[in-house]
Design goal:
two-stranded antiparallel ribbon; 6-stranded antiparallel β-sheet; alpha+beta; globular; about 210 residues
Length: about 210
């Protein structure tokens, strides 16, 4: 990847290619939220570097939208990133995105749903840093901080990963990683992690 395409620094300035969620869509989502009792906000990270990566990410977004007790509020732009924790050129690049949801599911049930969606897309679990058909990670859940080994919240490495924070910042510029601080303050420390905005690719927010 051309270092000049590193997008991590751009997260702190306006990007004209990133469009706000239309007011009509926000209204639709807010209206749907009235069917949810005491909903919680959560942030999910999606990633794929096997097969048709864009189609897989869109399928994951659609599957989340089809989940009872869950509404998709926003979907970030798509970014292309180098695989984490492996040597250059040893794996295909990832497509990554972040999804903002509102849900009545508790964290444990949301995790079960995330795993079910991964399995539906034939998720391969071949080593810690092996290639992935699909990753669906819970990044944050209603500001909860928990050391539960089954589901640590927020995601224990989210604050270190530009491929999570850059797309998250696009859709929630004022957001914070619970216990770690605002995205805008964390992003400058990740400037050496190359993430490239793929303006030619789009994920669709379900109706």
């Amino acid at each position: 990847m051309d270092p000049s395409e590193d997008h991590s620094g751009a997260a702190s300035s306006h990007d004209p290619t990133v469009q706000p969620v239309p007011a009509s869509v926000v209204h639709q989502v807010d209206a749907a939220d009235t069917t949810l009792h005491n909903p919680k906000d959560a942030v999910l990270s999606l990633g794929s570097n096997l097969g048709n990566r864009l189609e897989t990410l869109q399928g994951a977004v659609d599957a989340l939208a089809d989940t009872p007790g869950l509404r998709v509020k926003a979907v970030s732009p798509v970014y292309e990133t180098e695989p984490w924790g492996v040597g250059p050129g040893t794996q295909a690049t990832y497509f990554n995105a972040v999804v903002i949801i509102r849900t009545t599911l508790p964290p444990s049930s949301l995790l079960e749903r995330a795993h079910a969606i991964e399995e539906a897309f034939a998720r391969v679990r071949d080593g810690r840093f092996g290639p992935r058909t699909l990753d669906v990670d819970i990044v944050s859940y209603q500001g909860v901080v928990s050391e539960d080994p089954l589901l640590t919240l927020p995601h224990p490495r989210a604050h270190e990963r530009a491929f999570v924070l850059v797309p998250w910042h696009d859709v929630e510029p004022g957001a914070e990683v619970p216990g770690r601080g605002p995205l805008a303050r964390l992003l400058p420390g990740l400037a050496e992690q190359g993430v490239t905005h793929r303006g030619d690719l789009t994920l669709v927010l379900p109706d």
